[in-house]
Amino acid sequence: IDTDPGVDDAIAILVALASPEVELQAVTTVFGNVSVQQTTENALRILAVAGAGEIPVAPGAPAPLVHPRPQRAVHTHGPNGLGGVELTPADRRAEPTPAVWFLADLLQASSRPVTVCAIGPLTNIALLVATEPAAAARIERLVVMGGAYGAGNLTAAAEFNAWSDPVAAQRVLSSGLPITVIGMDVTRQAALDRASVSRIGASGPVGAAAAAMLVHSRNVQGTDQGGSGVVIHDALAVLEAIIPGVVQTDPRAVSVDCGQGAGRGRTLVESRLTPTSRPDRGAQFVPQPHPVRLAQTVDAARAMTEIEARLRSYPR
């Protein structure tokens, strides 16, 4: 998992750790919701509270490839990135090897298929593609949470991860890797309700920590969006990596506005139909190089049931 914890990132990591279908091999961190120093510390603490402190954490990019360092998401995630929830410090330190090299070594050495979940700005992944293309080519599937194919959440045009490093996002999405992109228009279709959060909180110490973070996010989202549930963008992306098909996707070409103006970070989806497109054959879009699997809808009830069950499965 390549991440910038972040409340929903923390929930995503906890969901992955509680999933017998997969083995979380490493966490790499990137700037984003808070500084890379803080995201690294948060990742270490999340793993420790879940009893998985042996999983390595490698710190990554502190800033975007080209654009000025973006603002932090303190309003959304609190000053420490975890909604003000103070987790016990971890005994283990971060790896001395930078994230890109650490991930490259992991990919080259793995005898099993590796899925990479990139749920923060895509700077680390763009650097991997540029500097270690042979290692990047060994990624079986890259699941990305990012983009807004309607209204954004940071600006009118852009979702936070894409806005934070649009150049990196564009380079990754045009890389030809096997990519599934889950945008904010789909993650917003699913939310944990209050009863679910309460049950998670009553399930034990890990669930209590998760619920405390979720309550913070719910309060922020209720103020910003008028909702009563809590949307956990990154956890939905990780769940799709664990249970492929919980999100329904179509092959589409996606590009990112890399300018410095009002459109910075806007994700553009190819929606032009071919002249020979026929209703009886379904939509046939103008072919583009390097299409990705773009999320269209999610089985919201199933997704939230799965996430709740996994968060409640930790020992009491």
In short:
With 316 residues, the protein is of the alpha/beta class.
Record keyword descriptors for this entry.
single chain, 316 residues, alpha/beta, Inosine-uridine Nucleoside N-ribohydrolase, Chain A, five-stranded mixed β-sheet, three-stranded parallel β-sheet, globular
Helix and strand succession? EHEHEHHEHHEHHEHHHHEEEEH
Number of DSSP strand runs: 10
Radius of gyration: 18 Å
**What is the makeup of the main sheet?**
5 strands, mixed
Q: Low-confidence parts, pLDDT < 50 over ≥5 residues?
A: none
* Largest sheet strand order: 4-5-6-10-7
CATH architecture assignment: Alpha-Beta Complex
- Overall number of domains: 1
Strand content: 5-15%
Give the CATH superfamily: Ribonucleoside hydrolase-like
Helix content: 25-40%
CATH class: Alpha Beta
Global morphology: globular
Structural class: alpha/beta
Number of H- or I-type helical stretches: 13
Q: Overall mean pLDDT score?
A: 92
